[in-house]
């Protein structure tokens, strides 16, 4: 029985890294050789492909395998209410201030690297809580990701204890209100709340074709995977999709300080769209 080549050659590694960059926008270094090998070898076994060169040909000529490769190459780790400070801002400052200035309108929020949906559903829960105080409040949450595997999880809304840990610890009443417990280790967003969030595939390096403009965009913990020119390109796309005075929220390990951008610092991790 044939065995998969143990190590990716320098030539094949450069090609694979080039495909990762082309398909996802992620800039990976050569030191990720073993990580990539670990991720793609199980798929090569399923395909009965034993040479990396042949696998490269396969993903270039098969759209289904290309998407599976994208899913394998991307990193997706998330949990509910990640980084408490931004959620305090969103709940206690952004929502009340937005409502004062926009009564009668629909709040539109984009979770632009939504992974399995924990961030988008965190937004939904706080919007629902705000609606208990302001009955006329309307909102729409859109979550996008390049990985179809995580979007499938997001649409199902089923999560294990690891992803739910922060929520259960700090906001147990929200878990009780918005989830059905389906096993000793899993809970699912209730149907009536899952319908409040829309998920779709989107590549951040491509300008969105959607017609909506957003009041707030969460772009968290994804820019670290892009080089500076690509980061600036993504930020230009975000600006084009934000309403006047719209807000951009970044991840805790990200900063716009060194980038050429049309966003102004407002608070830690929070930026305001600059006037045109």
Helix count from the secondary structure assignment? 11
Output the radius of gyration.
20 Å
At the fourth CATH level, what is the homologous superfamily of the largest domain? Answer: Vaccinia Virus protein VP39
- The CATH topology of the largest domain corresponds to Rossmann fold
Strand order of the largest sheet: 6-2-1-7-8-10-9
Poorly predicted regions: none
Global morphology: globular
The main sheet comes to: 7 strands, mixed
Please provide the ordered H/E string of secondary-structure elements: HHHHHEHEHEHHEEHEEHEEE
**DSSP helix fraction:** 40-55%
Q: Indicate the proportion of strand residues.
A: 15-25%
Beginning-to-end CA distance, first to last residue: 64 Å
CATH top level of the largest domain?
Alpha Beta
Give the name of the CATH architecture of the largest domain. Answer: 3-Layer(aba) Sandwich
- Work out the count of structural domains: 2
Based on secondary structure, the structural category is alpha/beta
Number of β-strand runs: 10
What is the arithmetic mean of pLDDT? 92
Task: Walk me through this protein's architecture.
- Helix 6 links the parallel strand 1 and strand 2.
- The chain has a seven-stranded mixed beta sheet, sandwiched between helices. The chain has a three-stranded antiparallel beta sheet with strand order 3-5-4.
- It has two domains: 64 residues, Orthogonal Bundle (Chemotaxis Receptor Methyltransferase Cher, domain 1), CATH 1.10.155; 190 residues, 3-Layer(aba) Sandwich (Rossmann fold).
- Helix 5 crosses helix 6 and helix 8 packs across helix 9.
- The mean pLDDT is 92.
- It has 276 residues and is an alpha/beta fold.
- Helix content is 46%, strand content 19%.
């Amino acid at each position: 029985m044939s065995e998969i080549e143990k190590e990716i050659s320098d030539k094949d590694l450069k090609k694979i890294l080039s495909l990762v960059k082309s398909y996802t926008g992620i800039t990976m270094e050569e030191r990720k050789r073993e990580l990539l090998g670990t991720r793609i070898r199980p798929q090569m076994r399923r395909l009965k492909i034993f040479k990396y060169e042949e696998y490269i040909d396969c993903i270039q000529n098969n759209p289904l395998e290309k998407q599976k490769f994208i899913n394998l190459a991307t990193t997706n780790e998330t949990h509910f209410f990640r980084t408490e400070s931004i959620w305090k801002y969103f709940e206690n400052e952004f929502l009340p201030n937005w409502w004062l200035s926009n009564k009668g309108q629909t709040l539109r929020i984009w979770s632009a690297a939504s992974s399995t949906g924990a961030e988008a559903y965190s937004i939904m829960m706080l919007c629902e809580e705000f609606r208990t105080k302001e009955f006329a409040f309307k909102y729409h949450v859109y979550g996008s990701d390049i990985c179809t595997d995580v979007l499938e999880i997001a649409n199902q809304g089923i999560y294990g204890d690891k992803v739910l840990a922060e929520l259960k610890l700090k906001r147990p009443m929200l878990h009780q209100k918005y989830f059905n417990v389906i096993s000793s280790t899993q809970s699912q967003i209730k149907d009536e709340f899952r319908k409040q969030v829309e998920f779709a595939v989107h590549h951040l390096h491509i300008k969105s074709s959607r017609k909506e403009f957003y009041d707030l965009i969460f772009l968290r913990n994804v820019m670290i995977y892009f080089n500076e020119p690509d980061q600036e390109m993504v930020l230009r796309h975000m600006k084009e999709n934000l309403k006047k005075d719209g807000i951009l929220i970044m991840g805790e390990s990200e900063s716009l300080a060194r980038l050429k951008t049309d966003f102004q610092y407002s608070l830690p991790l929070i930026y305001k769209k600059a006037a045109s």
